[in-house]
Amino acid sequence: MAKTIVGLEVTEESVRAAEITLGRKPQLVTYGEVPLPPDAARDSEVLDVGSVAVALRQLWTGARFKSRNVVLGVASRRILVREYTTQAMRPDLMREALPYQVQDLLPVPASQSVLDFYPLSQEGDQVSGLLVAAVSENIEQIVETLSRVKVRVRAVDLTAFGLARVSARLTGPDEVVSTVFVGDHTTQFAVSRGGVPLFVRLLPIDVATSAGRRQTAQTVEANEPALAYANSNVEVAMRTRGASRAASSPGVADLAARLRSTLAFYASRPAAQPVTRMFVTGAGAAADGVLTALNSVIDVPIQVVSVDDIITTSSAPAGELGLNLVGTVGIALGEVGR
């Protein structure tokens, strides 16, 4: 069997993962999702190590992942992503210089941050790209939790970069598109061309109502163990949260307005190329009224994307899990060809 890698995300609602092959034509081998109890985690932050570790053990056992090497996707609203220009230099020198250069831009000391710079263009001796900064304590907590269940973190990636990556599987190499992942609490927005992220924003927006979230928790409790997984021999039908999900009008209106203004802000930037399409995914895309609201304010075609639209699989997950796994697979795709 071809070598594989697992993309993994820890969200407020669940831990989910997708295993793909690393060949020239990646395939989705297996996938899984296990719900978390309330207050066990926030988006990309572990609050209760014991509960998350238990869920991870269930996830690996239920989905029967072959690999214990993972790419960890992070998407916390506490992560800073902004455009940044600096002097061009070798990558090793850049890593050494970056903490001193960007200290004034960070909400915490550089010594307490994990920094990355994604170069996009160079003019003379100046290079421009995307600066990414996360709180190191949060990343270390997840890595430590994974080590408890003997899962090894091979790389850490911004989930929005994974969204940009999967867009390349849906477009031509020169088409500029936006990809939106609508989560319960955080919406990720990425503009990309040929899979390369040009612009990224993480938007703190609650889409599901508190009543919907309470009903979701009651549904999970009533159906324990409410986990979903698939492999070559067995598939467990997912008890989707879609049946109990409700969308608040203020939340949906806020989502539509924020995405419209974010798209307009990108378009106002010097040399910004027009966005031709918007791909929408994530469980929030299935919430009542979301697509109607987006279509009413976004003036480019909108397409809902599920995981079987971007990768070959013998047993495609349905419902919300199929939407949520788009970003998870995108994270793993970053290891293909390396």
From TrEMBL:
**Gene3D superfamilies listed in its UniProt record:** 3.30.1490.300, 3.30.420.40
Q: Extract the InterPro entries matched here.
A: ATPase_NBD (IPR043129), FtsA/MreB (IPR050696), PilM (IPR005883)
Query: What domain of life does the UniProt record list for this protein's source?
Result: Bacteria
Pfam families xref list: PilM_2
**Stored PANTHER family:** CELL DIVISION PROTEIN FTSA-RELATED, ETHANOLAMINE UTILIZATION PROTEIN EUTJ
This chain belongs to the protein called Type IV pilus assembly protein PilM
**Organism this protein belongs to:** Microbacterium awajiense
Its organism's taxonomic lineage begins at:
Bacteria, Bacillati, Actinomycetota, Actinomycetes, Micrococcales
